[in-house]
Design a protein that fits this description.
Layout: H1 7-13, H2 17-22, H3 32-49, E1 53-58, E2 65-75, E3 78-85, H4 94-108, E4 113-118, H5 123-131, E5 135-136, E6 141-144, E7 150-159
Parallel strand pairs: 3-4
Antiparallel strand pairs: 1-2, 2-3, 4-7, 5-7, 6-7
Enzyme class: transferase
InterPro entries: Acyl_CoA_acyltransferase, GNAT_dom, N-acetyltransferase
Pfam family, one: Acetyltransf_3
Length: 165
C-alpha cells in the first residue's frame, strides 16, 4: 500500500522523462505534499469504496519505492491496471512480478478481467504486459488517459480467474 513514507520517492519518480511520457498520470506535477494529500484523500476513498487502488511497488529487501501499480476504472468484474517504474527498477523483472501480484489481488477482490493500455511506442510496456499474460485486443485506438489527454493506445486484457500469474 502507498504510504506517507513513499511520498518523496513517488514524487521524484514522476519527474522521470519516461514516466512523464508514458505514465499518463492524473496530475502533471507531484510534490511529496500532494502525494500525501492524495494518500489521505482520493486514494483512501478509492480503497474504501473499491473504485481505486494505488499501490507501491517496493524493493523486497530495502522497502525502497520502485514505482507504483494502480487498479482503476473498476466496472463490474473488470478493472484497468497501470504501472510505472523508477529508472533504477527497470530491466529487473519488477513490472512483471508486480503485475503477477496485482492479478492475485484482483482475483481476491472478485474481478475476472484486467484491462491495460499502452501507447504503441512504449515497447517495454508492451513486452511486460505480454510476458504477464496480457493479450493485445485489436489495433491502436484513440481514447482518454487518466491524465485526461487524448492518446492513441493499444488495448490489452488478461483473465484473472484463479489469480494465476
Amino acid at each position: 500500500m502507498l504510504q506517507h513514507g513513499d511520498a518523496r520517492a513517488f514524487a521524484a519518480g514522476t519527474e522521470d522523462e519516461d514516466v512523464r511520457l508514458y505514465g499518463h498520470l492524473p496530475l502533471s506535477d507531484y510534490t511529496p505534499a500532494i502525494v500525501e494529500e492524495q494518500i489521505d484523500g482520493v486514494i483512501a476513498d478509492g480503497l474504501e469504496d473499491g473504485s481505486l487502488a494505488v499501490l507501491a511497488i517496493a524493493d523486497r529487501s530495502s522497502d525502497d519505492l520502485l514505482g507504483s501499480i494502480v487498479l482503476f476504472d473498476v466496472r463490474g468484474e473488470r478493472a484497468e491496471v497501470g504501472f510505472w517504474l523508477a529508472p533504477l527498477a527497470r530491466g529487473r523483472g519488477v513490472a512483471r512480478k508486480s503485475l503477477a501480484a496485482i492479478v492475485r489481488v484482483a482475483a481476491e477482490a472478485g474481478l475476472s478481467v484486467l484491462d491495460a493500455r499502452t501507447v504503441p511506442e512504449n515497447e517495454a510496456s508492451r513486452r511486460v504486459l505480454e510476458a504477464a499474460g496480457f493479450e493485445r485486443r485489436g489495433d491502436a485506438r484513440t481514447g482518454t488517459s487518466p491524465s485526461g489527454a487524448a492518446v492513441t493506445a493499444l488495448a490489452f486484457e488478461r483473465s484473472v480467474v484463479g489469480g494465476r500469474p
